[in-house]
User: Which sequence fits this backbone?
């Protein structure tokens, strides 16, 4: 925070008040934390032995969670590659000079942006079998992620292409490049570079959304944790339930925070880069808000 | 068509559940998000820290994981909530982080002269925030808040995975129907979501034009 405009630089009296506020605020936070810990402790959830299961290879739990993590990353990584490739293609197609290309592509993009991702996944997993096409949970999840995110990425890239200075396009045409060359050699590289932080933010969203696999029963982290719980419960009662859920959630959160930090790092570098810093920040079209889906 | 009319009550109730879930979660997100945004600009450091921690955590957590904690985790500290209430709390708490971020950018967009003038005539932090800054901030963030709202309506579909029969949940329930019938249901579900999002987008545009401040 730079110089605060909302409140005066505190004088002696205000400083005393802020100190009291600080202490009270800290106490309230501590009280909430303590309450949760006491409740957990009262139920025996803080017992070291219960947490040890997460790190003891002889129980097979760490291996299972690791495999589940790999499956999460497998679905997310494939979807990231395909969604980016298709997104680039759709962005270019939506800017085509030919109406018969432009209009259908616009319809596809708007359709997939308008409906919830989970409905896309459900449509692939529950509706397609009616037409004799039976997809595995892996394919349904990945395809859903691709279809939804390619539409969002297409809009991001399109905004990037439109933000490149008109003179670039005119100059490229003037030196005799064909339309496809103008796009691939001049406009797209600048657009992608400029939109990189937003693109990465969208890929973080894609990784977050891979947790939807839980709902259709793909064995990603959450579903694996749930199935381990279902395995342990008849044998040991509810002893390990909470620990396994916390472990699965923490893995998700740590990976997402890391990717978000990468996005921030790229954004800082992009801003320092003279080639992109010279241009004004591109404005996104209405409704393109990366980072807001689940 | 027979199948569709047979299941119309189910679809209607599911639509109303989605609508109710959206409205309640939206209200919770708006209130909680406003409080969080105020905390983030307040003079008291622990409140700033707490709000920052909240926003960063929830923005980096999949909504499914939030649901997971509310539905399966809360019982571990002896709070048992119904599935619907759990869904409202999950979606509301998750969306509050995005509302807070949007509002904070709105607060930053209010001219510094406004806040300085408020201080100059002797308003306290709370007064200047309530009377001067927040009303202007809300006006500037109508479009981003609208986007948060539409994203949230779509996000309520995740409640389908946690035993709330809202629109998306009708698909797995009726999945055994034959091809043509289930396609009709899918169409109805898509239309159901659009019945909320399309008028919302129109309404947001109207509100934006009415309250916009010319600077």
Assistant:
């Amino acid at each position: 925070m730079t110089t605060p405009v909302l409140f005066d630089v505190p004088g002696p009296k205000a400083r005393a008040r802020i100190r009291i506020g600080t202490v009270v605020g800290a106490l309230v936070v501590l009280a909430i934390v303590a309450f949760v810990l006491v409740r957990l402790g009262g139920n025996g959830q803080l017992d070291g032995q219960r947490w040890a299961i997460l790190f003891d290879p002889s129980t097979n739990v760490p291996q299972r969670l690791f495999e589940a993590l790999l499956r999460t990353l497998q679905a997310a990584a494939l979807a990231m590659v395909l969604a980016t490739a298709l997104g680039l293609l759709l962005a270019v197609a939506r800017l085509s000079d030919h109406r018969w290309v432009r209009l259908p592509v616009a319809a596809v993009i708007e359709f997939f942006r308008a409906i919830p991702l989970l409905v896309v996944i459900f449509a692939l997993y529950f509706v397609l079998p009616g037409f004799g096409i039976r997809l595995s949970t892996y394919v349904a999840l990945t395809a859903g992620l691709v279809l939804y995110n390619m539409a969002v990425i297409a809009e991001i890239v399109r905004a990037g292409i439109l933000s490149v200075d008109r003179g670039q396009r005119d100059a490229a045409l003037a030196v005799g490049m064909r339309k496809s060359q103008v796009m691939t050699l001049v406009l797209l590289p600048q657009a992608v570079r400029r939109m990189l932080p937003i693109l990465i933010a969208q890929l973080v969203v894609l990784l977050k959304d891979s947790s939807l696999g839980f709902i259709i029963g793909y064995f990603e982290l959450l579903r694996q944790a749930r199935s381990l719980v279902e395995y342990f419960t008849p044998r040991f009662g509810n002893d390990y339930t909470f620990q396994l859920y916390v472990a699965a959630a923490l893995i998700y959160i740590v990976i997402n925070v890391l990717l978000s930090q990468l996005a921030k790092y790229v954004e800082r570098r992009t801003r320092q880069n003279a080639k992109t810093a010279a241009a004004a920040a591109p404005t996104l079209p209405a409704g393109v808000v990366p980072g807001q889906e689940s | 068509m027979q199948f569709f009319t047979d299941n119309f009550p189910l679809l209607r109730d599911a639509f109303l559940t989605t609508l109710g879930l959206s409205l309640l979660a939206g209200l919770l997100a708006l209130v909680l998000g406003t409080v969080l945004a105020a905390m983030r600009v307040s003079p008291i450091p622990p409140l700033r820290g707490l709000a920052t921690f909240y926003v960063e955590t929830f923005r980096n957590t999949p909504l499914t994981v939030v649901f997971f904690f509310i539905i399966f985790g809360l019982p571990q500290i002896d709070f048992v909530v119904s599935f619907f209430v759990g869904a409202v709390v999950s979606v509301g708490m998750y969306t509050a982080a995005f509302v807070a971020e949007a509002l904070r950018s709105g607060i930053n967009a209010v001219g510094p002269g406004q806040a300085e003038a408020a201080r100059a005539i002797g308003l306290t932090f709370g007064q200047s925030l309530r009377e001067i800054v927040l009303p202007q901030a809300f006006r500037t963030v109508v479009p981003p808040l609208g986007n948060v709202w539409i994203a949230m309506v779509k996000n309520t579909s995740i409640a389908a995975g946690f035993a709330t029969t809202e629109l998306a949940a009708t698909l797995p329930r009726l999945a055994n129907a034959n091809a043509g019938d289930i396609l009709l249901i899918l169409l109805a579900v898509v239309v159901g979501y659009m019945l909320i999002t399309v008028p919302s987008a129109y309404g947001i545009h109207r509100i934006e034009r009415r309250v916009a401040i010319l600077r």
About this structure: The domain at 2-211 of chain B is CATH 1.10.3720.10 (MetI-like fold). Chain B touches chain A through 64 residues (CB under 8 Å). Chain B has ten helices and no strands.
